[in-house]
Amino acid sequence: MSRPRPKKISQILPTFQNVAQTSHYMVEFGMPSDYGKKDNLRSFLRGKGIDYRFHTQDIGLLCSSAVLPGSTFATTVVNGEYQGVTETIPHTRNFTRIKLEFYVDNEYKSLKFLEHWMEYITGNSDANPLDDAYNFRLNYPEDYRSQSTKIIKFERNYRQTLEYNFRGLFPIALDATRVQYQNSTVLKASCAFSYERYICGKATSFSQSQNSDQNRTSLDARNPAHQRSNFLNGTIAGNDQRLDEMASQLSKNGIYRKTNQTTNQFFSNDGFSGATVTEGVK
Questions:
Q1: Would you state the pLDDT for residue 158?
Q2: Cα distances (Å, whole numbers) of residue 179 to 25, 74, 113, 187, 226
Q3: DSSP label at 146?
Q4: 106 or 3: which carries more pLDDT confidence?
């Protein structure tokens, strides 16, 4: 084994400057869309004052704390395959529950969203809720389980992302929400969610067509010669300098050749991030 070799600060500093931050994420809920059923979850929530826009957009913004999911293996111990060796063999993958915390708005919609989602799961009987004969009749799992809820972790430049798509997600435990007479703070509600499994990476038909689903590397990323756009370093002063640096660097790799286009023709501004984007001319 070779002994460690000292490195300069300039060699290791880029590694520690490119670490992910915890405060940039997004949560999106997707309710089951069973339009064939008269009393589906969406219409049930709408009847409770939870409109479609709230459970697709606003509730995700009110999620003040989320967790990226994890999983464990159920294992069995095998003896005797090799003399004197004990092996641990996994046989089932278990997905752990996740817990989300939400700010409660002054109309209490976020708390109602969780309460009535769980109420829909338990169903109801024909009896009046005030009667002693009232009971619960659970709905079918496909009626209340979300198949398109996702947590997206991204960085503040909006370029690097990590996406988790949950299959069969539903609330399983709503924690008691504490209120008190002492100093007022923002009211929060926390809820644990169970799910069948998750998909790490994008899970859409478009990402599949681009070969970028499930964190697979797309064709453009694998082969720079196929790239059509590149985000350049925004700290370099002047588009002319950016054009010269890009052209000289890529020419060394034999991918791009220098062009006689003007800077304004070669560069355009991306309105979403404000970064300068190239047109990728070969």
A1: 83
A2: 28, 40, 19, 8, 58
A3: B
A4: 106
Residue 99 confidence class, pLDDT cut points 50, 70, 90 = very high
Q: What is residue 215's DSSP assignment?
A: G
- Cα distances (angstroms) measured from residue 95 to each of 27, 68, 71, 135, 188: 19, 12, 4, 31, 26
Q: Where are the alpha helices (DSSP H) in 36-97?
A: 41-47, 52-53, 59-61
Per the model's pLDDT, the better-predicted residue between 244 and 120 turns out to be 120
Question: What predicted TM-score, i.e. pTM, was given to this entire model?
Answer: 0.70
Across 48-60, average pLDDT: 88
The phi-psi region of residue 42 (left if phi > 0; otherwise alpha if psi is between -120 and 50; otherwise beta) is alpha
Helix (H, G, I), strand (E, B) or coil at 118: helix
- Residue 167's Cβ-side half-sphere holds a number of Cα atoms within 13 Å equal to 9
Q: What span, in angstroms and rounded, lies between the C-alpha atoms of 282 and 271?
A: 24
Q: Coil, helix or strand for 233?
A: coil
